[in-house]
C-alpha cells in the first residue's frame, strides 16, 4: 500500500515538471526545445554587432599626441576652413619701463682741485646757474705758495731766456764755448718746462697766467660752474674743509633730456633707430614724445637690453630720475601673419593647426590635423603676426583658419592634451 502511494506521488511530480517546461520553451517535431524566430534573430544580431565592434576597436590606430582627427560630419559642424600662411603689414606697440636722464655733457659734478676751506656760497638745491658763474669761494695757503712759485720760476725763465739768446750770438762768433752753450741751453729748457707745468696748475684752480700779476696773489679761489643748468645737490657749508674727492655741487641741464628704457630680448628685432616713443609719468593721462637714437648692442644678465630716446619737446614737469611708462610704435613691415582665428592658446602657449592627411577607418573618411606651437606677435585688422618653427614649409602647408578652437576642444576632451 505504501508503495502504491509513493508511485502515484512520483508520477504527479513528473507531470508538473513537464508541464512547466513546456510553457517556457517550444519543442520541434522531434521533441527538442526550440527558440522563436525573433529571439534567434536578436541573438544573432548581437553576436554580429559585437564582432564588428571588436574588429573596429582592434583596427583603430592610436594617434600621436600632436594629432587630432575629425570625420566629415564633425568638420562640417565645426565649420573648419583652410588657408595658408602669408606676409602682411602688421603694426603694433612694445611696452617698456625706464627712467628720465640727461645726456652726459649736460650733467656736471663740481669739486675743488686742490682742497681748501669753504669761505662763502649762497646756492641751494634748485638754484639756476649759468656757465662761468661763481658757485663758492674756497681758500687755502697752498694757493699762495703755488702763485709765488709761479712768479719765481717765471722770473728765472725770463733771465735764462735772455742769457740763452745772448750766448747764441756769442757762440756763432766763436766767442762762447760749445760746453758753456750746452749748459745754458739745458738750464733754459728746464725752466721753460717748469713754467709750463705751473701754468697748468694755476689754470686748474681757475687762475689765468695770461692776466695774472704779482699784485693779484690771493689765498682764495672761485669755484666756477662748467655748464648752465640748475643745482641738483649742494654738499657745502661755510668753514668746512673740502678735498679734491668731495663733490660740492651737482648741476643738471634739462634742455636736452633722454629716456633710458629696458626691453626684453624678444623685442630686439623690432626696434630700430628713428622709431617713435610715447611715454607718461606719474600715471598722468598726457603723453610725451621721444625718438629712439641708440639701441643697445648687448643683453644684460636679466635678459633685457637698453634703448635710448631723446625727448622731442620741452616738458616742464619731466625731470631727471623720474620713472616712465612707455610704448614704442613698431614700424609697418612685412611679417608672417595668419587670420587671428587661426591662433589658439592653451596653458600660456600659442598654437596653430595644419592639415596632416586624409584617411579611412571602417569605411568612413577622417581628416587628421597637427597642432604646432608658435610665438605670437602683434594683432592688427584681424591678422596676427606669428613666428613659426624652423623648416616650416609656408608655401605648401595648409592651416586651419576657422574652427581652430573646435579642434583644440576636441583634443582636450580626448584627454590627450596635457598642461606640460
UniProtKB/TrEMBL annotation:
One Pfam family hit: BSH_CzcB
Keyword Kinase assigned: no
Domain CzcB-like barrel-sandwich hybrid: 107-252
Record field: compositional bias (Acidic residues): 54-63
GO cellular component: cell envelope; membrane
Basic and acidic residues compositional bias, start-end: 25-53
Signal peptide: 1-20
Keywords: Signal, Transport
SUPFAM superfamilies (alphabetical): HlyD-like secretion proteins
GO biological process entries: copper ion export; plasma membrane copper ion transport
Region (Disordered): 22-63
Keyword rRNA-binding: no
InterPro entries noted in UniProt: BSH_CzcB-like (IPR058647), MFP_Cation_Efflux (IPR051909), RND_pump_MFP (IPR006143)
Protein name: Co/Zn/Cd efflux system membrane fusion protein
Organism: Aquipluma nitroreducens
Lineage: Bacteria, Pseudomonadati, Bacteroidota, Bacteroidia, Marinilabiliales
Amino acid at each position: 500500500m505504501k508503495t502504491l502511494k509513493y508511485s502515484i506521488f512520483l508520477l504527479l511530480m513528473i507531470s508538473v515538471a513537464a508541464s512547466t517546461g513546456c510553457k517556457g520553451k517550444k519543442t520541434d517535431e522531434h521533441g527538442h526545445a526550440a527558440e522563436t524566430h525573433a529571439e534567434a534573430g536578436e541573438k544573432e544580431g548581437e553576436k554580429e554587432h559585437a564582432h564588428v565592434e571588436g574588429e573596429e576597436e582592434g583596427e583603430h590606430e592610436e594617434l600621436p599626441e600632436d594629432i587630432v582627427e575629425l570625420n566629415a560630419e564633425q568638420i562640417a559642424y565645426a565649420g573648419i576652413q583652410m588657408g595658408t600662411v602669408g606676409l602682411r603689414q602688421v603694426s603694433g606697440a612694445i611696452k617698456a619701463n625706464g627712467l628720465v636722464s640727461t645726456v652726459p655733457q649736460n650733467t656736471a659734478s663740481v669739486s675743488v682741485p686742490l682742497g681748501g676751506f669753504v669761505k662763502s656760497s649762497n646756492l641751494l638745491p634748485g638754484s639756476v646757474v649759468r656757465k662761468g658763474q661763481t658757485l663758492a669761494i674756497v681758500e687755502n695757503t697752498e694757493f699762495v705758495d703755488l702763485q709765488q712759485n709761479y712768479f719765481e720760476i717765471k722770473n728765472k725763465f725770463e733771465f735764462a731766456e735772455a742769457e740763452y739768446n745772448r750766448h747764441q750770438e756769442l757762440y756763432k762768433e766763436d766767442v762762447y764755448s760749445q760746453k758753456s752753450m750746452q749748459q745754458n741751453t739745458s738750464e733754459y729748457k728746464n725752466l721753460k718746462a717748469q713754467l709750463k707745468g705751473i701754468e697748468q696748475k694755476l689754470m686748474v684752480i681757475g687762475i689765468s697766467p695770461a692776466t695774472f700779476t704779482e699784485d693779484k696773489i690771493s689765498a682764495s679761489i672761485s669755484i666756477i660752474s662748467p655748464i648752465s643748468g640748475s643745482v641738483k645737490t649742494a654738499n657745502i657749508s661755510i668753514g668746512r674743509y673740502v678735498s679734491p674727492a668731495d663733490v660740492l655741487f651737482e648741476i643738471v641741464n634739462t634742455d636736452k633730456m633722454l629716456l633710458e628704457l629696458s626691453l626684453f630680448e624678444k623685442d630686439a628685432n623690432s626696434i630700430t633707430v628713428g622709431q617713435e616713443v610715447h611715454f607718461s609719468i606719474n600715471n598722468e593721462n598726457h603723453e610725451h614724445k621721444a625718438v629712439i637714437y641708440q639701441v643697445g648692442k648687448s643683453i644684460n644678465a636679466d635678459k633685457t637690453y637698453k634703448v635710448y630716446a631723446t625727448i622731442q619737446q620741452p616738458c616742464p614737469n619731466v625731470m631727471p630720475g623720474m620713472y616712465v611708462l612707455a610704448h614704442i610704435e613698431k614700424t609697418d613691415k612685412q611679417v608672417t601673419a595668419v587670420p587671428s582665428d587661426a591662433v589658439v592658446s592653451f596653458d600660456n602657449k600659442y598654437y596653430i593647426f595644419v592639415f596632416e592627411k586624409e584617411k579611412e577607418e571602417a569605411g568612413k573618411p577622417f581628416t587628421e590635423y597637427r597642432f604646432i606651437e608658435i610665438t605670437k606677435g602683434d594683432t592688427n585688422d584681424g591678422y596676427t603676426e606669428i613666428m613659426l618653427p624652423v623648416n616650416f614649409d609656408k608655401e605648401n602647408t595648409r592651416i586651419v583658419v576657422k574652427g581652430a578652437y573646435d579642434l583644440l576642444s576636441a583634443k582636450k576632451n580626448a584627454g590627450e592634451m596635457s598642461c606640460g
